[in-house]
């Protein structure tokens, strides 16, 4: 059986395709309308590209292929198509690429028309085209595609190298957002059966010098290997020219579990021509496939955030939100970040304020006893585990500890740092993330209620380097393969970590049993630092609180979602990549707004957009203050 192949050819982007569960080559009945010409075909350059292409190396198992669209790299385009043909000529091709001039007036345009080329006619796959139009994710507007070189420029090569294949052309506008990407990927899902391959033609780093081009390509290749569509969407033209097209491919590959990326070539215009003057463009050829043979390297993602600090004004808003039900509703505050948190394999919060015993007598500082509905909201937002060791842990005595842990248990959120008994303290919190057993440990530098230290011997974990390392060793013995330590430490409102924090980080990460440290308590974002091959996030700011410039430093409204990619290598499981999403707490509503709302063009006032952008820039500067790890600053580069 021939494979149905989806070629996403984008002159500056990616694409995806698929084939439904019908016999390969099947199509709906109906006349083929008039044909498109091939305006970008140039016989000499086309013949040269075919003559330079090497012998085919079959791309067995390929589900998505990336090739360029510039005919300066025509040899690479032909290599990609021939490698696919050698693995079994596809019956269906979906070309997905950028709509460079925005013609057609829709986010995605397609065509039911055939294409006439010097190498034969290429006919549309009408069943797929009409299905996408019927679903409302594409508009049939054939005329603009005639002169869209991301589509039309590749058609003659398909006719020559993959004769008989039918096509589904999709041109994506530059205004595509993540929500549009996911909608298109979902609409394509019924076509992504075992006979479907996705091919994307994309050009990468643009208008840069050779060294910077290579640096940008390294960042892009990390995102490709990690299937990090959100990071791809944060990139600009200096990385690639159609982030949305690439993100669609990645979302499709995730759904198909075709998560192994094989790079076959990465080059650029300077290397092809031998001339480096002026800006250059880079090219990547590679493909995604399912793992076969040896077991794949294990991989999982962690999303971590800072303080959950329920002040009186936050509780009042939650009460107003939940008025009709007679309780507190914190869920709207997390609505804007739920997607990011839920998409991680393991999401970790810091529950700083204890829950009120009995659920009726509340206090909001300096001694805290907060509504229990916050636990339900944390679960609904996508959190898997929360650290609970903080200076406020014993504000409500043992009753507060018990109420907090009971509420988290009821909500289905794991917890660590406080305990209801000595026996509970001795147990390690273990969570499975991406098939890996992860231990979560939590400790605090101080307590606000020193008179409770007797109970605190087992009720709250206090920072002690020897105890932390000993607990991590016990966690390994209990089956942990990766150990995350949450630390409540540092000086409030100080953006730079203290000497104590830096010294403890060195000691703790020097242990082979501790892999990652995430911190909180300062209420402002602090640096992320690499220590050897490991990382410490000294402080992640306030994720939800009532603090603002009215009472405190302006930066107390700033927070961050740190995303760590953990991958198995020769040295075991290690963080292989990290990125950040700055957040800001909106006054009055206390909605947690991610900076991506600015990037997505979400509707907001100019004042709010400016405040969110300023917050994101503060956060990025703080995180990178000790030398920004690669990946930090990519999201905010264009704004800051």
Q: Structural class, from helix and strand content? A: alpha/beta
Q: Please estimate the helix content.
A: 25-40%
Instruction: Write down the overall mean pLDDT.
Output: 87
**CATH class designation of the largest domain:** Alpha Beta
Distance from first to last alpha carbon? 53 Å
How many domain modules?
A: 2
Structure summarized in a few sentences:
The chain is α/β, with parallel strands linked by helices and 640 residues long. Helix content is 31%, strand content 24%.
Report on this model:
The chain has 640 residues and is an alpha/beta fold. It folds into two domains: 4-289, Protocatechuate 4,5-dioxygenase, Chain B, CATH 3.40.830; 299-578 and 589-604, 4-Layer Sandwich (Purple Acid Phosphatase, chain A, domain 2). Helix content is 31%, strand content 24%. A hairpin with a 3-residue loop joins strand 15 (363-364) and strand 16. Helix 1 (43-52) crosses helix 2, helix 7 (178-188) packs across helix 10 (243-256) and helix 15 runs parallel beside helix 16. The longest helix has 18 residues, at 606-623. Mean pLDDT is 87; it is low at 1-30.
């Amino acid at each position: 059986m021939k494979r149905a192949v989806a070629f996403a050819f984008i002159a500056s982007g990616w694409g995806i395709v698929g084939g439904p569960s019908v016999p390969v080559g099947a199509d709906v009945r109906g006349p083929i309308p008039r044909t498109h010409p091939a305006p970008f075909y140039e016989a000499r350059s086309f013949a040269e590209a075919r003559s330079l292409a090497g012998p085919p190396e079959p791309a067995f198992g390929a589900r998505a292929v990336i090739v360029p669209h510039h005919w300066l790299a025509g040899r690479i385009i032909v290599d990609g198509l021939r490698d696919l043909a050698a693995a079994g000529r596809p019956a269906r091709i979906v070309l997905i690429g950028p709509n460079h001039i925005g013609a057609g007036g829709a986010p995605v345009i397609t065509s039911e028309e055939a294409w006439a080329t010097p190498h034969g006619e290429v006919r549309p796959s009408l069943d797929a085209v009409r299905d996408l139009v019927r679903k409302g994710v594409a508009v049939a507007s054939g005329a603009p595609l005639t002169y869209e070189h991301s589509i039309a420029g590749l058609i003659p090569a398909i006719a020559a190298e993959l004769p008989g294949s039918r096509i589904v052309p999709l041109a994506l506008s530059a205004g595509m957002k993540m929500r549009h990407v996911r909608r298109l990927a979902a609409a394509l899902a019924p076509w992504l059966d075992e006979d479907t391959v996705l091919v994307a033609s994309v050009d990468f780093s643009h208008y840069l010098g050779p060294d910077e081009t290579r640096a940008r390509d390294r960042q892009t290749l990390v995102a490709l290997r990690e299937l990090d569509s959100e990071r791809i969407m944060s990139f600009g033209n200096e990385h690639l020219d159609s982030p949305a097209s690439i993100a669609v491919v990645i979302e499709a590959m995730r759904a198909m579990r075709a998560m192994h990326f094989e790079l076959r070539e990465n080059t650029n215009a300077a290397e092809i021509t031998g001339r480096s003057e002026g800006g250059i463009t880079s090219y990547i050829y590679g493909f995604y496939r399912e793992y076969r043979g040896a077991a794949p390297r294990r991989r999982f993602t962690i999303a971590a955030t800072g303080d959950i600090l329920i002040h009186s004004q936050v509780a009042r808003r939650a009460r107003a939100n939940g008025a009709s039900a007679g309780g507190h509703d914190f869920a709207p505050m997390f609505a804007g970040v739920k997607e990011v948190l839920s998409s991680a394999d393991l999401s970790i919060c810091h529950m700083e304020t204890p829950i009120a015993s009995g659920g009726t007598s509340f206090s909001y500082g300096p001694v805290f006893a907060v509504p229990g509905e916050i636990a339900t909201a944390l679960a609904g937002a996508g959190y898997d585990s929360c650290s609970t060791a903080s200076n406020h842990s014993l504000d409500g005595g043992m009753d507060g500890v018990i109420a907090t842990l009971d509420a988290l248990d009821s909500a289905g959120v794991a917890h660590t740092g406080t305990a209801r008994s000595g026996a509970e303290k001795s147990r390690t919190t273990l969570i499975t993330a991406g098939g890996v057993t992860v231990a979560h440990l939590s400790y605090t530098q101080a307590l606000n209620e020193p008179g409770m230290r007797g109970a605190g011997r087992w009720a709250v974990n206090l920072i002690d380097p020897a105890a932390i390392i000993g607990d991590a060793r016990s966690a390994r013995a209990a089956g942990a393969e990766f150990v995350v330590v949450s630390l409540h430490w540092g000086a409030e409102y100080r953006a730079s970590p203290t000497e104590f924090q830096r010294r403890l980080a060195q000691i703790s990460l020097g242990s082979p049993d501790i892999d990652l440290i995430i911190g909180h308590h300062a209420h402002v974002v602090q640096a992320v630092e690499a220590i050897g091959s490991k990382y410490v996030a000294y402080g992640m700011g306030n994720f939800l609180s009532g603090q603002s410039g009215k009472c405190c430093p302006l930066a107390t409204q700033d927070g961050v979602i740190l995303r760590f990619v953990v991958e198995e290598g020769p040295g075991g499981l290690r963080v292989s990549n990290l990125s950040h999403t700055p957040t800001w707490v909106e006054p009055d509503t206390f909605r947690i707004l991610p900076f991506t709302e600015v990037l997505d063009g979400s509707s907001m006032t100019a004042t709010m957009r400016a405040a969110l952008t300023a917050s994101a820039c503060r956060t990025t500067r703080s995180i990178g203050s000790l030398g920004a790890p690669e990946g930090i600053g990519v999201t905010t580069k264009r704004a800051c």
